[in-house]
């Protein structure tokens, strides 16, 4: 195992960790680093590269579990000292999360093969980056002046389901799960922070399930040679995702979505330049 390969793994984990939960499309960023680093260095072949992407995504998911640990315990009914008001009053329940997950889970199951065959390309990601940026700008410009739903505990089942419909847009690689769902939540009258909290909570089960299935499918690439590479990427993604999530949640109500939309358009330009230079 060369030190250079471990350095590459750390850099790729950094990119995944910083971009997975921000509305900037981790897929778009990973295509760029994949084109510039993984393919150019031929690190362990296609199957190992696929496993590596799953492993670093798992690192990001674990960071989300840490940030929302108490919330997940509450959702599963495992948190101690829950008051009667919290138990029966206004709070986010597991059924809200399931309601939000259903639309994307159903469409993802039905169209998985089509998505893999037709939507995972630089061209389609480039378009998704721009279209997603437009949605985010529209959401910010047309949002209610005063949010009807200030916190994630005030989300209704109707809001959860409609946000889940917006999450279906993220099946288009490059659209960004958080970009689509936060935009949808804001359009429904949720505060940016409430929409972001719900987005991140929903992301854990759906991302974990997809990652687990992909890892099982490509398990043959896990060898003594590649394990240090995978572990380094996992740790890097976990650490930087932890930093990025906390920073983003503290920032989102202040900066809103437009700055991220502008960044996405700039990223699309970078991808376009990559296409032209091939």
TrEMBL record:
Catalytic activity, as annotated: di-trans,octa-cis-undecaprenyl diphosphate + H2O = di-trans,octa-cis-undecaprenyl phosphate + phosphate + H(+)
GO CC list: plasma membrane
Pfam families documented for this protein: BacA
Enzyme class per UniProt: hydrolase
Additional remark text: Bacitracin is thought to be involved in the inhibition of peptidoglycan synthesis by sequestering undecaprenyl diphosphate, thereby reducing the pool of lipid carrier available.
NCBIfam families from the UniProt entry: PRK00281.1-4 (NF001390), undec_PP_bacA (TIGR00753)
Protein name: Undecaprenyl-diphosphatase
Source taxonomy: Bacteria, Bacillati, Bacillota, Bacilli, Bacillales
Gene designation per UniProt: uppP
